[in-house]
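Thought: the user wants the 3D structure for the chain below. I'll pass the sequence to the structure tool as-is, report back what it returns, then summarize two notable features.
Action: structure_tool
Action Input:
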Amino acid sequence: MIASAVSLPPGATALDLLRQVLGHFSDALPEQIVPEADLVSLQVDSLTLAEMLFELEDRIGVPMAEPSEKPQTVADILRLIEPHLDLIRARTAD
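Observation:
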């Protein structure tokens, strides 16, 4: 696993991180990446979702909880990221 640099300014949200990562895997504009957005409408298929989740884990530096159901919306992914925000911010502050 290759860790990518996490660059979140103070006060950044899980949505900010997801917009950074999703931008590498989709042509969706940042303003389209909102909690209620359906992943299919953002051009996120099953393979893209798996790659994106691995990238998020690399950026966070710890494994995320395995979702009980396949994420369908941006909000579903945000729920996986949010428990790790303090860790991300602590690393950014160092």
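Final Answer: Structure generated. The chain has four helices and no strands. Residues 14-93 form a domain with the Non-ribosomal Peptide Synthetase Peptidyl Carrier Protein; Chain A fold (CATH 1.10.1200.10).
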